[in-house]
Write a structure and sequence with these properties.
The protein is about 30% helix and about 25% strand. It is an alpha+beta fold. The radius of gyration is 14 Å and the shape is elongated.
Amino acid sequence: MIDYGFGELGLERIIAETMAVNEASRATMQSVGLRYVRTFHVEFDDPLPGSEQGEVEYAITREEWATASSPGRGR
């Protein structure tokens, strides 16, 4: 999906968000090259357990993706 976003759609930046407590999603974001950007808090009418720890944003730029995708980088 990252390759499609940058290669086919021409995006400049790709972001993903999840609950801070969602370790599996955070690990997936990191494994595809996204980096932690920030933690932020959103008020929900009916919050899920763990929402008090906030939401996290991960992102990767086209430049970061291109560098990681260059030959010899093991991607």
